[in-house]
Each structure stands twice: as structure tokens, then as C-alpha cells.
Amino acid sequence: MPCGLAFGDTHVARKKADASESVTPAAPRVNTAAVTSKTSDRLQFRLPEGMRDKLVEAATANGRSLNEEIIDRLTQSLERDAVQRLSNRLKAQADRLATFEGELAGIVERLRPRDE
Where are the alpha helices (DSSP H) in the chain? Predict the structure, then answer.
């Protein structure tokens, strides 16, 4: 499905293209043939100047529709956030483990018989 606008398209043509693209399913990584309007969410939002054109270029380069490109990028961002949260939790656990190991080493040292 072509996602770019031909050079010289009018504002009206762009609005029509936007309307037809917004009907596509919004569920990430779902077989689009199996998605109906009852299983997808529809969302309208404004993009900063020039961002739509950049997304269209990226979508074209990746062989995706504009909708698929946006969904893929949002999915990657959310997954990256989840990985970062997990990484932070693991680092906190590693810090606690290091503290515990230090305390345990101190206890072992105090319990060792001293050669005098």
C-alpha cells in the first residue's frame, strides 16, 4: 500500500489520504487481514511540522504503510521503555546483592578462628 504523497498533491488530497490511512488497524503486530474496526482503536493527533513527511519517507523505505510505520515505532519505543525499567530493577537487585555479599563476607571474617 503506497504511503507517500506524490509531489504536488493538494491539501485536500492529503486530507483524503490521511482519512483513508486512519482507518487501518492500530493494533501492533497483528495480521491486518484478521483485524476489524471492532478490534482496533482509532486515534487522531497532530504532528509537528515536517514530521509526517519524515514518517512517510521512513515508511516508504521500510515497505510499510504510514500507519504500520507509526505503530512499529511506537511499539519499539514502548518495548525499549519496558527493557529500561527491567534493567533498572536488575541493577537495583545487583546492588542489593553486592551489599549482602559484603555483609556476609564481614560475618564470615568475624567467625573465623584467629591464630594467635
Answer: 11-22, 51-62, 66-111
Task: Give which of 17, 16, 101 is closest to 56, Cα–Cα.
Answer: 17
* Residue from 29, 36, 37 nearest 64 by CA: 29
Distance in angstroms (rounded) separating the CA atoms of residues 89 and 84: 9
Please state, in angstroms and rounded to a whole number, the distance separating the CA atoms of residues 52 and 70. Answer: 10
| pTM confidence score | 0.53
Rounded to the nearest 5°, which phi and psi values hold at 2? -70, 140
Low-confidence ranges of the chain (pLDDT < 70): 1-38, 116
CA angle 11/54/18 to nearest 5° reads 35
How far apart, in whole angstroms, are the C-alpha atoms of residue 42 and residue 28? 13
Amino acid 38: pLDDT: 67
